[in-house]
């Protein structure tokens, strides 16, 4: 994956967490994801399409998610409430929105609405033919990880999507 | 949600399962999702953007996912393998691709790459401000459910996304 797609996520996660949560984020070295996905408790997922195709996942351990949502909403929320999921979804939405605005020469990228997964020890798999970069982050609320799996949309991948549409 | 968005998914799930798996699907009455999401073991999630914005989730119990993947791939696969996740992802991709081709007058809809969640008893939450329709399905391999949460993209929702991008 072009490293030019990683820097925007690093900057955006720091912008969003410092602006919205007053929570500084230390971003550790990104690494290519290999083998099994790490297990998570709470994940916010957003899809990207247009000139790039892919998915972005923001994943937390349960206690970290509790603390981040409390900072975002000003109070602790029940994990099974709609507001809890909406808060995680809004965070990943802001991170992706901020990142896509920093993509080089990529004007036509749209992002889907977020999906939020709550469940102890789940794994998130993105398509194995798209390189996935793990960005580990550390904060005073605990650690979390962003997974970015995007590729530039090629005519052949559009054709394949069209073939699926016609199946 | 416009019922015109549900029929394409009903038709597409039947097309894809009968064509790719030779597995007839009985589609039960769709219902608006309220309250907590049902818990799942394996979920394939795809985002849609463009003239409509939303997410589609195809969720299975573990045993049903095992059987469906075995039909799709011709052999049983390990649940933690990349091929298992890719098979579930390809199924949801074909269902969404087929459905979007049947949307009325909606030419500009793109779909993201799929994310696949594997984890016992996880819940998937979609944004609470988008109506979500649950479509329960029955097959000889067991039951599964499709959740469709999409809305037409309005100038105000585009503006809100832009605001997030500028935050």
What would CATH call the architecture of chain A? 3-Layer(aba) Sandwich
Largest sheet of chain A: 8 strands, antiparallel
Q: Topology as H/E string of chain A?
A: HEEEEHHEEEEH
CA-CA gap between termini of chain A: 29 Å
Number of domains of chain A: 1
Name of the CATH superfamily of chain A: CheC-like
Protein model, in words:
Two copies of one chain form a homodimer. By secondary structure, chain A is an alpha+beta fold. The first copy, chain A, has a single domain, classed as Chemotaxis protein chec (3-Layer(aba) Sandwich). In chain A, 35% of the residues lie in helices and 34% in strands. The first copy, chain A, is built from four helices and eight strands; from the N terminus they run H-E-E-E-E-H-H-E-E-E-E-H. In chain A, strands 1, 2, 3, 4, 5, 6, 7 and 8 form an eight-stranded antiparallel sheet that branches. In chain A, helix 1 crosses helix 3. Chain A is globular. In chain A, 45% of the residues are buried. Strand 6 of chain A pairs antiparallel with strand 6 of chain B, so a sheet runs across the interface.
Write out key terms for the chains shown.
4 helices, alpha+beta, eight-stranded antiparallel beta sheet, homodimer, Chemotaxis protein chec
Task: Describe how the helices and strands are arranged.
2 copies of one chain form a homodimer.
Chain A: H1 7-21, E1 26-27, E2 31-32, E3 40-50, E4 52-60, H2 62-73, H3 82-100, E5 109-111, E6 115-125, E7 133-139, E8 142-152, H4 155-166
Antiparallel strand pairs in A: 1-7, 2-7, 3-4, 3-5, 3-6, 4-8, 7-8
Helix pairs in contact in A: 1-3
């Amino acid at each position: 994956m072009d490293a030019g797609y990683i820097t925007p996520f690093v900057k955006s996660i720091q912008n969003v967490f410092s602006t919205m949560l007053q929570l500084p984020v230390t971003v550790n070295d990104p690494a290519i994801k290999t083998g099994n996905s790490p297990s998570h408790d709470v994940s916010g997922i957003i899809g990207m399409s247009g000139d790039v195709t892919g998915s972005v996942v923001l994943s937390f351990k349960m206690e970290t998610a509790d603390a981040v949502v409390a900072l975002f909403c000003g109070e602790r929320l029940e994990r099974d409430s709609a507001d809890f999921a909406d808060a995680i979804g809004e965070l990943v939405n802001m991170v992706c929105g901020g990142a896509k605005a920093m993509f080089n020469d990529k004007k036509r990228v749209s992002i889907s609405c977020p999906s939020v997964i709550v469940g102890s020890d789940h794994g998130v798999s993105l398509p194995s033919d798209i390189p996935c970069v793990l960005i580990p982050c550390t904060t005073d609320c605990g650690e979390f990880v962003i997974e970015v799996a995007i590729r530039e949309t090629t005519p052949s991948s559009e054709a394949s999507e069209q073939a699926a549409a016609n199946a």
